[in-house]
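[09:14] KT: can someone run the structure on this one? pasting the chain below
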Amino acid sequence: QVQFVESGGGSVQPGGSLRLSCAASGDIFHIYAWGWYRQAPGKQRELVADITSENKRNYADSVKGRFTISRDNGKNTVYLQMNNLKPEDTAVYYCNRRFAYVNWGQGTQVTVSS
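[09:31] RB: done, structure tokens below
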């Protein structure tokens, strides 16, 4: 049913910025909370940020103050603005519903290095 595509990743130096996008289709997008997750090599997938249908936002302590999650219900898209990136932010980033998971997509790679 639901399909989504993550994009916007890339390679950046420490202190740089990226904006990730997750475009969903085949979903009643606006009724769900959505989250951004990441998984580094050898690590478990972790929740980075989420946003509810009422635009309440939450962030992992490691990214608070640097990342901003937002959504555009008209475009069925959720975004993650990533500023002041650090090497420890290197991971594959995924989007998904926050509380009603659907099949995980391919994600988008973010690499932060000098």
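[09:33] KT: thanks! The radius of gyration is 13 Å.
[09:34] RB: yep, looked fine to me
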